[in-house]
Every structure is written in C-alpha cells, then in structure tokens.
Amino acid sequence: xxxxxxxxxxDERDFLEPLVERLQLRKLEAYGxxxxxxxxxxxxxxxADVVVLDVKMPGMDGLQVLRExxxxxxxxxxxxxxxxxxxxxxxxxxxLGAFDYLIKPVKLDxxxxxxxxxxxxxxxxxxxxxxxxxPKQT
Length: 138
Description:
The chain is α/β, with parallel strands linked by helices. It has a single domain (5-130), classed as Rossmann fold (3-Layer(aba) Sandwich). Helix content is 48%, strand content 18%.
C-alpha cells in the first residue's frame, strides 16, 4: 500500500492519539490535531490527501471546518466522524462535499476502508483534473 497523508481532527485526545498511532502502524503518514482551527492552520502549510474529521467539537465544529477545507483545498477528501448518531449532520456533510461519514465508535477496519476509498477517489479526481475533465457525479 502506498503511503499518503492523513490528518485526523478530534478534540477527544483519548480517541485521537491511539487512532493516529494505529494508522501509522498501517504505514500511513498520519497526523493528529485537536481542533478545527489547528487543522486549517496546519493544512495551509502541509498538503494532506484525506482528513478524518470529528463533527462535534468545541469552537469550530466539523461542518464549519469541512466548508473551509473544501473552499481552500477542494481536492482534499474528508471523512466525517460523528459520535452523536446524527445522520442529519452526516447527510449535511455529504452535501458540503465530504466523501463519507461514519458513526462513532468506529471499527478501525471500517475507517481504514473509507480512508483508502477516499484516497483512491482523490487520485481519480486529480488525474481527471490534469486531463481537463471533471469526474462524473455519483
């Protein structure tokens, strides 16, 4: 598996740190940050392929951060996580351009599958953009 950059954004350190470590063990270049503001500042100077983003955070919530990511870095794929079983926020996230959403607690294998799918999608979009084409909406 090719290594690529994944940024995990979650205010719960007990969730964030072990997840980043587990992604790194799976040979991903994974980083973790505790707030949306930190994530946007980090992304301004560091390219990422996929962002795993918690929806419910103090300060900027995940949907606000998603809007900013898609505005500033449209090719970055975002997988939303919600611990509040809010299908509505997940659906709103999809409308705002998120690749997918998962409900916490999430199994690592399920999250890895979505991260890999998001990365593959990003590769296709970049290839099409380089060829002057737009991807088909699904």
